[in-house]
Design brief:
GO terms for molecular function: ATP binding; ATP hydrolysis activity; branched-chain amino acid transmembrane transporter activity. It holds the Pfam family ABC_tran. Keywords: Amino-acid transport, ATP-binding, Cell inner membrane, Cell membrane, Membrane, Nucleotide-binding, Transport. The chain is of the alpha/beta class. Helices cover 36% and strands 27% of the residues. It is built from ten helices and ten strands. It starts with a strand and ends with a helix.
Length: 232
């Protein structure tokens, strides 16, 4: 469904991605792991066209995303929940859910996201910026879900969120995946990533150095120690 082949990207003269290869199959849940600063967020931003790739290919359902304008990529079926959420704080919950649509979301989609996140239904007229961090994250995810993406890309969705809401958010990501949506997840919490995802890519200094199943990582925790410096 999504394939990155030898993708390069830089911030000015600073080369960050040095030939990233990564794949997400239809219906798969994939974790992108790596220590701080190795280029995980940059990889996601490059997929979304927010940073131009200076080389390589990014294909989504056979189409080269590098030729698609950034504002049209969501319309091609990719939902992106950026680090720091990226909701509109001055707009209400409802107005945030309308972003990216011409008008209101269809009733059945609204019902679907409010069933997933009842907290949002209770706060539908509240300004996004007045929600708690966890609720804002739910809103950022809900905003993608109303667009019915085929692939949901999330950048550290549970970072800095109170534990009670973390579980709700993880559960909903899992549910979306079980309903057939593909997931690409950047996650600092390796245990969470191993729980939610069946495949993992690990990055080091702008390249992918591990591509395998999360079952293999669980079975060989020394790999996690080698690449991430962590004990499971
Ligand atoms: N706007 C920017 N301008 C210049 N350099 C940047 C910019 N954004 C990121 N970088 C640099 O690019 C490198 C990769 O950053 P990136 O955010 O992709 O890493 P990451 O793996 O997501 O890290 P983290 O886990 O800390 O979020 C870092 O060295 C970072 O300092």
């Amino acid at each position: 469904m999504l394939e990155l082949v030898d993708v390069h990207a830089s911030y000015g003269k600073v080369r960050v991605l040095r030939g990233v290869n990564l794949k997400v199959e239809a219906g798969e849940s994939v974790a992108l792991l790596g220590r701080n600063g190795v280029g995980k967020t940059t990889t996601l931003r490059t997929i979304m066209g927010l940073l131009p790739a200076s080389g390589g290919r990014i294909e989504f359902n056979g189409q080269d995303l590098r030729t698609v304008a950034a504002h049209r990529i969501a319309g091609r079926g990719i939902g992106y929940v950026p680090q720091g959420r990226g909701i509109f704080p001055m707009l209400t919950v409802f107005e945030n859910l309308c972003i990216g649509l011409k008008g209101k979301p269809p009733e059945d989609r609204l019902k679907y996201v409010f069933e997933r996140f009842p907290r949002l239904r209770e706060r539908v007229d509240q300004a996004g910026g007045t929600l708690s961090g966890g609720e804002q994250q739910m809103l950022a995810i809900a905003r993608c879900l109303v667009l019915e993406p085929r692939l949901l890309i999330l950048d550290e969705p549970t970072e800095g969120i109170m534990p009670k809401l973390v579980n709700e958010i993880r559960h909903e990501i899992q549910r979306a995946n079980q309903a057939g949506m593909s997931v690409l997840l950047v996650e600092q919490n390796v245990k969470t990533a191993l729980k939610l995802c069946t495949r993992a890519f690990i990055m080091e200094k702008g390249v992918v150095v591990y591509d395998g199943t999360t079952a293999q990582l669980r079975a060989e925790p020394e790999l996690i120690h080698r690449y991430l410096g962590l004990a499971l």
